[in-house]
């Protein structure tokens, strides 16, 4: 940070709620620019959940997907669950009553969903890793696996299992006929289907699981009977749900009730400021921005938010965030992938090289300034 900006930052304290991709990007930029800040997350380690699905099928992989916050951010990291924000007093209140004052607030609470794709639980680094290692054993014990949901997570999950364990029967059931995200080009969505079929995944498309409430998820139990609304019945050993992703609004819903979109995301202006609050920003999945929810976008949001905090202090014009053409890569196991860059379909080998082999783990370890095990 330059001399003028450094002096402007006196008395400024930025609180970042949520240590996902947007949160660590914001914290790292605040740190490099000399801001006083506090990063809050309920876990003690960043979860590179882009690689969560491989961690759930490959033994020993999970330790590469969790990176401890304190080693990077020291005393600027606080572990805890945020219960609410007092906007009048400009404090964040944690479970247990601890209050942390802010002059500027960046909310990056992300999305919540089913394990193993998401792991939004109060847990230590060791417990988090062990939870994935335990799940690997469930997959290894199953001869047949049903994946419910054919969005990006379900597609990648089915591909990861079949790639690591080609002898297992893997079935994917999806309520729609087209797989993956609607924002993707139809040709990319079709190619995802082609890859799954090539790998030997059985597809039940245009069908919903009817007896969901009776099924035990994520635990191998031989000969579970699953029925769909189209009358299909199948027997499997393990059921994994990859549906039900929702905005994680628990930390702010009561405090910003007037600023919530229908899905629980925060309404923001073009500068990513929460509507009605010039010193509060929403970043990543919890910002009501019309684009796919992706780690890549969260990092871009973080740059705009931190830049605008600096701009506001130095009385410079605020930067705007404009969603661009969709870039999305789906890892279909370690050896294949489909996707598009800025609206153009990519060759499968290019996606495999760019994402599937390492799942961009190198990027998070580099951003956290730590060495990958």
**In what range is the share of β-strand residues?**
15-25%
Going across the biggest sheet, name each strand in turn. 5-2-1-9-18
Q: Give the class from helix and strand content and strand pairing.
A: alpha/beta
Low-confidence stretches: none
C-alpha termini separation:
32 Å
Task: Characterize the overall form.
Answer: globular
Can you describe what's shown?
By secondary structure, the chain is α/β, with parallel strands linked by helices. The chain has helices at residues 3-8, 21-32, 52-55, 70-73, 125-141, 152-164, 186-199, 295-313, 348-356, 361-367; strands at residues 13-17, 36-41, 45-47, 66-68, 77-79, 82-86, 91-94, 99-101, 104-107, 111-112, 144-148, 169-174, 202-205, 224-227, 233-236, 238-241, 246-247, 280-282, 328-331, 337-341, 344-345. The strands form 7 sheets. A 5-stranded parallel beta sheet has the order 5-2-1-9-18, covered by helices on one side. α2 runs parallel beside α8. The radius of gyration is 21 Å and the shape is globular.
């Amino acid at each position: 940070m330059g001399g003028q900006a450094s002096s402007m930052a006196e008395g400024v304290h930025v609180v970042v709620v949520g240590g996902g991709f947007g949160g660590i990007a914001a914290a790292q930029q605040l740190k490099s620019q000399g801001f006083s800040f506090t990063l809050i997350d309920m876990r003690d380690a960043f979860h590179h959940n882009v690689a969560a699905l491989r961690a759930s099928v490959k033994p020993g992989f999970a330790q590469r997907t969790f990176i401890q916050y304190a080693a990077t951010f020291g005393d600027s990291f606080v572990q805890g669950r945020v219960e609410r924000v007092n906007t009048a007093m400009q404090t964040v209140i944690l479970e247990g009553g601890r209050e942390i004052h802010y002059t500027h607030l960046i909310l990056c609470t992300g999305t919540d969903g089913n394990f193993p794709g998401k792991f939004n639980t109060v847990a230590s680094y060791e417990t988090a890793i062990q939870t994935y290692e335990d799940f690997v054993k469930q997959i290894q014990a199953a001869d047949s696996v049903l994946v419910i949901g054919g969005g990006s997570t379900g597609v990648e999950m089915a591909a990861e299992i079949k790639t690591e364990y080609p002898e297992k029967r893997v079935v994917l059931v999806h309520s729609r006929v087209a797989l993956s995200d609607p924002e993707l080009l139809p040709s990319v969505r079709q190619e995802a289907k082609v890859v799954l079929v090539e790998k030997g995944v059985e597809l039940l498309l245009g069908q919903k699981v009817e007896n969901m409430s009776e099924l035990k998820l994520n635990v191998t139990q031989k000969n579970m009977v699953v029925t769909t609304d189209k009358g299909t019945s199948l027997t499997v050993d393990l059921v994994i749900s990859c549906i039900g992703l929702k905005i994680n609004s628990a930390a702010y819903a009561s405090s910003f009730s007037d600023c919530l979109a229908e899905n629980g995301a925060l309404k923001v202006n073009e500068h990513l400021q929460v509507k009605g609050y010039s010193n509060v920003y929403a970043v990543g999945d919890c910002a009501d921005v019309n684009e796919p929810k992706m780690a890549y976008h969260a990092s871009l949001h973080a740059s705009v938010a931190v830049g605008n905090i600096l701009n506001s202090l130095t009385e410079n014009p605020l930067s705007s965030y404009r969603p661009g053409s969709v870039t999305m890569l789906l890892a279909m196991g370690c050896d294949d992938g489909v996707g598009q860059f800025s609206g153009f379909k990519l060759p499968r080998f290019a996606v495999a090289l760019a994402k599937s082999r390492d799942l961009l783990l190198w990027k998070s370890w580099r951003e956290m300034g730590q060495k990958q095990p």
